[in-house]
Amino acid sequence: MSQKVKDLPLDDRPREKLILRGPQSLSDAELIAILLRTGMKGKSVLTIAQEMINKEGNLAVLSSKSHAALIKTSGIGKDKAATLVAAFELAKRILHQQKWLFDKKITSPSDVAEIYIPLLKNETKEQFWVLCLNNSNKIIKQEAISIGNLNSSVVHQREVFKVAIDNNAASLILMHNHPSGNPEPSNEDIVITRKLVEAGKIMDIPIFDHIIIAGNNYTSFVERRLI
Fold it and tell me: How confident is the model over 6-40, as pLDDT tens digits?
């Protein structure tokens, strides 16, 4: 039977250790244990946390697991799984927003990929985003205008350019993800993009690029000379 957290010396208990020595002093398992809060009969919360990390290999892999996958782990019910999924999602958003809030000037497709791959690479549904840029090519607004399969019925010109007009965008970058991991644009992707590019010319709001995020890879329509 694994030792219960309450039986550990006070300064070795994860919460007390965090307060006394700071979060950097805790192991990965101890941080996960704080989120899980309690163990189960015959197994401490620290043991459960360490077993989860050992099974997946590292936190990065663990953080990609869905709620349904997490509840298959012994000692992890739906509430604990939801807590973990929420914490992992917060970590992704913080990483994304740190890069965005640094007021990074977009000079190439790789700049966009660097910011958005961590946010979108593990999404299971296709999302279409509009990125608004100012005259200095800095992102001033991001908005997901559709979630689901990308097709002409869910991506409307009026929605794309409403975001641009509402935020006084000087230009736009379009972006969507491929949950399949295949970065190749479909024929539908190309048709929709070219229609939006032409509309941008009429609106005098140029579309600089359309970027597809697929896992850790990306495709730029400009680099591929598709627009």
Answer: 656 656 688 898 888 888 888 999 999 999 988 88
- Measuring CA to CA, which residue among 117, 145, 150 is closest to residue 130? 145
Determine the 3-state secondary structure of 219 from DSSP.
strand
- Over residues 194-199, the mean pLDDT reads 95
Contact between 214 and 180 under an 8 Å Cβ cutoff? The reply is yes
CB 5 within 8 A of CB 46: yes
Q: At what angle do helices 157-166 and 187-203 cross, to 10 degrees?
A: 50
Judge whether residue 153 has pLDDT over 60: no
- Which segments of 6-123 does DSSP mark as H helices, in order? 14-21, 28-36, 45-56, 59-63, 67-70, 78-101, 109-120
pLDDT single digits (tens) 33-85 = 999 988 888 888 999 999 999 999 899 899 989 999 999 988 899 999 999 99
Distance CA 214, CA 40 (A): 38
Return the closest-CA partner of residue 2 out of 52, 46, 53.
Answer: 46
Phi/psi of residue 174, each to 5°?
-90, 150
CB 213 within 8 A of CB 177: yes
Of 213, 225, 155, 223, the closest CA to residue 182 belongs to 213
